[in-house]
Amino acid sequence: DAVVMWFKMDLRTTDNRALWEASEKAREAGVPLICIYVVSPQDFEAHLTAPVRVDFTMRTLRILKEDLAALDIPLYVETVEKRKEIPDRIVEFMNEWGASHLFANMEYEVDELRREAKMVKMFADHGLAMEVFHDTCVVSPGALTTGSGKQYAVYTPWYRSWVAHVHANPELLDTFDPPSKNPPDARDKVAALFDRDIPDVPENKRLSEEDAKRFHALWPAGEHEAVSRLDRFCEEKIGQYNERRNFPAQAATSSISAHLAAGTLSARTAIRTARDKNKTKKLDAGNEGIKTWISEVAWRDFYKHVLVNWPYICMNKPFKPEYSNIEWSYNASHFTAWCEGRTGFPMVDAAMRQIRSIGYMHNRCRMVVASFLAKDLLIDWRMGERFFMEHLIDGDFASNNGGWGFSASVGVDPQPYFRIFNPLLQSEKFDPSGDYIRKWIPELTNVTGKAIHDPYGRGAAAQAKKAGYPEPIVDHKESRNRALSAYKVGIGRD
Ligand code: FAD
After folding, report:
1. Domain range holding 21?
2. ipTM confidence score
């Protein structure tokens, strides 16, 4: 007999609701808790998961296995090629170990929700029980509705309601303890599970040796690292977050997104830790930096709620159906220039080189490059959304889709379509010294003064040309007008 915990994107022992529930069940029944994680190369492919994110997951699994082993709990990791075979494999696994109860946290993407709904029924048919919990959001999807009972499609009123809900239910921020140690005989009973190694990264997602070295140094994995990153940020930087968060040359944000995406950190713990640094228990009062940071973490909840309420956004459709008629350009050389960071717009290029190099991009730059792709180049935003997923260590469907929808003005609570970022002004405002640009574009390291934002227009043309930095591929004024008319025609406002 045993109780099984199925890990997914919740790779931590502390503050993990399903793991805690599973542990309680096992303790009450006096049986061992055993854990499983299924690696599905096909799932990675279908979700466009970036190799750097897969690698981060596999490294995390090794740490999780050790942490659980210290509690005499085994973590068994198996590769199942075809995703549709996962439910059967889990049933088989449960039968092998005589387990009748499976615990898991819920994932809200449409394929996963469908799979889990099917599994609950299938389990019942097999005489097994499956319990699935809300865990990834602080406030579960479905809990907040407008006064007239509708789902919120605008962030600010949603956020007010989110804050009020947490204030009324402060236990939502309580932590779940790590699982209890397995009974003394568990080690013998399930010994075979302890012996199995974590499989290698599937071939379709393997990093080159050089990339692996760089990424491992940049992004240490596991929940201990996640908590120490969070603690350091709350200790040293959160107080100035509101003033400094928009400047990509400053390391002023928490850089915990990869951990929230892999589930090595819970959103509850993130918000609780920040709140406990404040002099008030209120989430929307006190220190400006703390308040602002909490409201940013809440965006993550917001986009997950949106995903649950309007699941068609998982199917390549814009949140606003009337925005389906915009005629996008599919100019391949423009798209390649954008992907490679060779558009001739230094702020855009620096950001694209950052994502390619470290699997991460600063939030301000994500907005700038997304707006540039969708508006200046008028390229289908879904191509950019896809490119981000294929490169980000923190790639998360809901936040990525939400960010692209916002920037391309096709999403929930978006930037109005006529608001078009001027990449030059964004650069002057948010990278005034040009340090961010110089860091990522070696061709421009020696360009000084304002020319860094626009070398060809500001007197550093010869220098940029000599160093091989490209000229701008479009004229912002012209492309702005083109975008305005394409959006107007597309949405029928012409
Ligand atoms: P901090 O500023 O320290 O914020 C803390 C946490 O709050 C983040 O880790 C994140 O979980 C959450 N958060 C902050 N801003 C947002 C936001 N706008 N939307 C949703 N959550 C937010 N974030 C992802 O986690 N995965 C993605 O795939 C992703 N794609 C994006 C694509 C675009 C086009 C845009 C504009 C934004 C995207 N974001 C995404 C949101 C945001 O850029 C990152 O969460 C943030 O840059 C991560 O850095 P940080 O952890 O230092 O953030």
Report:
1. 1-135
2. 0.99
